[in-house]
Amino acid sequence: MDKQKNLSTTYDPAQVEDKWYSHWKEHGYFQAEANQDKEPFTIMMPPPNVTGQLHIGHALDHTFQDILIRWKRMQGYEALWLPGTDHASIATEVKVVNKMREEEGLSKDDISREEFLERAWDWTEEYGDTITNQLQQLGVSCDWDRERFTMDEGCNQAVKEAFVQLYEEGLIYRGDYIVNWCPDCLTTLSDIEVEHEEQPGKLYHIKYQIKNSNQYIVVATTRPETLLGDTAIAVNPADERYQNLLGEKVIIPIVEREIEVVADEYVDSEFGTGLVKVTPAHDPNDFEIGERHDLEVIKVIDDQARMTAAAGKYEGLDRYQCRKDLIADLKEANLLEKIEDHEHSVGQCYRCDTTVEPLVSKQWYVAMEELAKPAIEAVRNGATNFVPERFDKIYFNWMENIRDWCISRQLWWGHRIPAWYCQDCEQVIVSREEPEICSACDSSNLEQDEDVLDTWFSSGLWPFSTLDWPEDNQDLDYFYPTDVLVTGRDIIFFWVARMIFMALKFTDKTPFEDVYIHGLVRDAQGRKMSKSLGNGIDPLEVIEEVGCDTLRMTLITGNTPGNDIRYRPEKVEASRNFANKLWNASRFVLMNLDDFDLNELDNNKLDYTLADQWILSRLNKKIKRVTELLEEYQFGQVSQELYDFVWREFCDWYIELIKPRLYQEDDSLERQTAQYVIWFVLENILRLLHPIMPFITEEIWQYLPGEGESIMLAQWPVVDKSIINEQVESEMQVIMEVIRSIRNIRNEMQVNPGKEITAILTSDVTEKLEIIQMGQDYIADLAKVSELEVTEDLETRPEQASTAITEKIEIILPLAGMVDLDKEIVRLEEEIEEMEFEIKRAEGKLNNDGFVNNAPEHLVEEERQKKEEYTAKKKQLEERLASLKT
Ligand SMILES: [Zn+2]
Ligand SMILES: [Zn+2]
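Above: the input entities. Below: the structure tokens describing the complete assembly.
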């Protein structure tokens, strides 16, 4: 360690941050072990995508977690923050596919699954460290020895166990179902991975001939190409217009296939003609109608959004080309009644924006009804709490309307579904281990399901798979369930909800007590940060420029739970200034502690002044307040409270108040007491600030006298209520108000800052005068008052004086000796003249009808306001001038 006695003259984060991070890590301060003498406090890090890059959202999310974990660690908890990364099936597979195409000119069709996985693992190893290295620059104090990956061996065991258990209980099933399919990513998407957007489109009114008649019915659709797969026409059973059609057959135009007319409650009689074409293979609602009426399912669009053989002459066309050709054919056959403009909602892939194609296919599902119930109950009864509470509505709304969860994905990168199909009989074998023979026919001709599981299936197990569930073990017993999950509101359904029902199913416990939801970081104008707008902020660049502590402080300043924050340059500036203020104040303190020896100090002998008692009382209140605010996750207020305390109370007031005592002889009791208090307060400030600004606090703390290896291991300050003293605080309040008022007058009068002045303080409240007597040294020092008269009865008022009243005390500052009267009179007269000129100018404009009638309203208003302002200012100056002339 650096043995010099004082801090460097300016704070340079680059000199400090890497040094301390490696020191903490090497000394094992981030590690947590099951320890029966301590209470555990656990956070599982939401795993960022393994191939991702650190963005400002991560910085925010991880700052909150690090604040909580450092605070709890200091409070004496065995604090575990377990880090890890997510394999992110779709995102990673897309990247590997692109790389393969660019570098090797290969597509997935050209290589085997094994060859692809080899490349994907190489990719993961090559880029997987990037995000974790970047995270470290944020100062995160997570236990890197326990780092996990959602596709590591342990997580894979957990996934298989969960799948097999759910399957054996009938909660996982395989079936034909309509899914959201991305024809570009070539995989299914869950409902929440589909983004709906209103788009202008067309409504096509198409004529279907009624069989054995020359009559037609008209059906309206936005997707005419799907008529090739129609297997019924549906009407609402209550729709009287079409009662005679029920049971009839109609003929699909162009393809001339016969279909039935059925009655179904789903049909909205108000929409279009009240007749709906039913295409079970390509629409989720139609699929359900089809189930109810046992309709045939005809797939006319394939995985790549091309028309299938069932589409007849349109086979092989892209779905949109088919639409064009079909419309042309319908027009020619005179079967198109009309085309209307029609705005409608279109589902798009959240990754690639391709329009999603609903398709029927064989997929694996989790039956949700039974799993959702206890998960809803757990939040209702408070076993898990959303912070802020309003987010439980989003949760309930989703959980109460939940549909079965399609968990198979047509990808290679991910947890392969542990199901094998016997090629010699119909048997499906779901197993933790690869089976050798078919359990029904003993055949060894088995093939594993080609698909992988939805990424969220494995991240849903994260809170306990990371502690080696399903294996019974000490860590799982000790650290689980976790205490809080910190996450953004955008993944409440994707992830939070799934962790809750999975945890309840497999561990009988909710996975966390609190879910702290934070908002987004927006740009200064309140816009979302995005690549296309180019308004993103790179947290690593900010760290390089102003340091990690400043970034952390900026991110939490003004933050309230659940709400977005704006990233403003002024905020960064303010946070940086704060760090510098703390640094400079600490330098001053250290400069005055060279002869200070904690060991030789006798606490009982110290002689506390009013200022000492005041700052100690204020400190204890802050300790109480900050601790309470942290318990409520009010990070923004924590930073505000600490900012104000350090800057205003400690630096602006306390340090100034005790300077004279610090400058006294070395061994005087006054000086020793001042040294002790300033050391004590600063040391507590550093501990209170440490969770927010870990680096600067550690650097300063190492220079301060006292025991201990690292501020990380120091105890969180504990409030001592006996030191809170309301009387002392209100006395200091009076004294500070008087000082502030005198300083204001000096400013207004432009008195030379170094000039000593005379002041008379009078009040008819005796108590106030007593307080002033107590504080007269402070007033003398801080307001530069060389002669202070404190009196109840003022016999004669000085003739020329400036006055103010505060706290029921009248402050009278005789001007003689304070300002050069003649000069001041000239200055004031000049200023008054200037005001008069400005007032005339404004009046001239306002009296000009041309201006008033033709100029924009806001300019006219501006002139009116100027006139008012100048007039008021002039009046003030005249009053001051009058007081000087008496
Ligand atoms: Zn896609
Ligand atoms: Zn078999």
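Note for the figure: The radius of gyration is 38 Å.
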